[in-house]
């Protein structure tokens, strides 16, 4: 199962490259008004499909066991949806004086505003042997929170496309995000046994639709002769994203392992991944809605497209190291408790 998941993620990375290359070769196919009619197929049908699919696949009925650990959930959600975007905003005040493309910098801010992903943080937490129930809860709960909080954060830090009024943004978000998600959850209640038995390829479906959104987004870019993306900015953004990921993973590790933090080593594993990972599946459709018609939408999307594979790559590389730390830490705690138990 883990091998299939890894193959799917590798296929998706290749798909992103092919989607961008295809958009570069023939951008007229996916532009607004083109043969694909993205103003309808992407803005409404594709986005709604992704969130209906998320509603079907979210196992919210299994989250009750993780509800009691309120301190852990508060830490993850506050770090992800408050500290992360605020810290990125402060960092960008320094980067604004550099020659890095301003729209890529705005894209970095959008990364900070995104909710946690539904799958990658859970998969990596499970691979290490951490608190999987907490990872599932915070990924699902963060996704629900993100439906409301992420658009508000995007509007707070970046504003919206001038062609789309505030009320229109939230009415479209409600119809294409909230409603399909709720319908998906309702349908899941009636076909839950069938879903558990057949295990439909939810990930592959969402990934395929997402590739279509990415393709049409870059078609808009390459059809606009006024947009130029310099390689220097792109390389710097890649380096910055790696640095942000590692720094925030280290920061969450330090905070969650302090004396009297109340977190177990298994909790720390869930915190590291859930607090620092960001959702591409939910993020790209939201950007498509909030920045509808924006000529620099694809440039704003680039950092999130980079952040997604980086979090999976870094997480996978660090799994053995984090697992080794967790096992040794658990052994030390058991050894400490052993003598104390004997004294009692």
UniProtKB/TrEMBL annotation:
Keywords: Cell membrane, Endoplasmic reticulum, Golgi apparatus, Ion transport, Membrane, Sodium, Sodium transport, Symport, Transmembrane, Transmembrane helix, Transport. The keyword Cell division does not apply. It comes from the Eukaryota. The keyword Transmembrane helix applies. One of its GO terms (molecular function) is symporter activity. It is a multi-pass membrane protein. GO terms for cellular component: endoplasmic reticulum membrane; Golgi membrane; plasma membrane. It is found in: Cell membrane; Endoplasmic reticulum membrane; Golgi apparatus membrane. Its main location: membrane. Belongs to the bile acid:sodium symporter (BASS) (TC 2.A.28) family. Does not show transport activity towards bile acids or steroid sulfates. This is Sodium/bile acid cotransporter.
């Amino acid at each position: 199962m883990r091998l299939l998941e890894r193959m799917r993620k590798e296929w998706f990375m290749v798909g992103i490259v092919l989607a961008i290359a295809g958009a570069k070769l023939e951008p007229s196919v996916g532009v607004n008004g083109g043969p694909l009619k993205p103003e309808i197929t992407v803005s409404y049908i594709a986005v709604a499909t992704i969130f209906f699919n998320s509603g079907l696949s979210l196992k919210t009925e299994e989250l009750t066991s993780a509800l009691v650990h309120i301190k852990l959930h508060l830490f993850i959600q506050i770090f992800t949806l408050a500290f992360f975007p605020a810290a990125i905003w402060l960092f960008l005040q320094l980067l604004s004086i550099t020659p890095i493309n301003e729209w890529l910098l705005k894209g970095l801010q959008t990364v900070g505003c995104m909710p946690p992903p539904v799958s990658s943080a859970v998969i990596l937490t499970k691979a290490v042997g951490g608190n999987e129930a907490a990872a599932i809860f915070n990924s699902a709960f963060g996704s629900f929170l993100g439906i409301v909080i992420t658009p508000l954060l995007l509007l707070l830090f970046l504003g919206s496309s001038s062609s789309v009024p505030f009320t229109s943004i939230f009415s479209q978000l409600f119809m294409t995000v909230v409603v399909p998600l709720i319908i998906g959850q309702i349908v899941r209640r009636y076909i839950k046994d069938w879903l558990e038995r057949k295990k439909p390829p939810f990930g592959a479906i969402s990934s395929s639709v997402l590739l279509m959104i990415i393709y049409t987004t870059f078609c808009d870019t390459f059809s606009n002769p006024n947009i130029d993306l310099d390689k220097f900015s792109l390389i710097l953004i890649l380096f910055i994203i790696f640095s942000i990921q590692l720094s925030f993973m280290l920061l969450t590790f330090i905070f969650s392992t302090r004396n009297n933090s109340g977190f177990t080593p298994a909790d720390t594993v869930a915190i590291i991944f859930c607090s620092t990972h960001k959702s591409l599946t939910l993020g790209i459709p939201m950007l498509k809605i909030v920045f509808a018609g924006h000529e620099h939408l694809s440039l704003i999307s680039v950092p999130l497209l980079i952040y997604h594979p980086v979090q999976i790559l870094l997480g996978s590389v660090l799994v053995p190291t984090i697992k080794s730390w967790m096992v040794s830490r658990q052994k030390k705690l058991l050894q400490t408790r052993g003598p104390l138990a004997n004294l009692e």
